[in-house]
# Entry
Amino acid sequence: FVEASAQVIGDVELAEEVGVWFTSVIRGDVNVIRIGRGSNIQDGTVIHVNRRGPPTIVEEYVTVGHGVRLHGCHIKSHCLIGIGAVVLDGAVLEEECLVAAGAVLSPGTNAPRGSVLMGAPARVKRQVTEADLDLIHRSARNYVALAAEYKAMQGG
# Structure
C-alpha cells in the first residue's frame, strides 16, 4: 500500500504487505532502496541514498516512525525506529533493535541485536525487554492490518 500523497521514485523495491504512509518520500534516484515484507514507512519519512554510498535496506517487519530520516543504512528485521530519528550512511541495526524518538545514528554506527539506542549521537543504553519486543512485533502487525484496510477502501 502506497498512500496517494507519498512519493516512491527510482530504483525502489517494495515487498508484499509494505505500507508507505502520508507524505513519505522514498527516493532511489541515484542508488537502490529495498523495503522488506510487512515493513511500514510512516507519515513524513524520507528515505534516500548517495550515488556512491551504500544502498538503503529495510528488512522485514520494521516499523519506521513518523518523520524519520534513513540514508544509506541497513535496518535488519523486526526493528522499530522512533519518531523523528535519523539513521545515516553505513549504519547497521541488527535484528530486534529499538531506536528512541529523536535519536541520531552517526555514519557507520553498528548496533548489536536487541539494542535500545538513544541520544544524539545515539548510544546503546540497554537491551530490549520482552515488553519492547512485544511493542516491536505488535506495531508491525498493526500496520500490516491498517495498510490492508486502506488498500481495501481504495478499491485495491
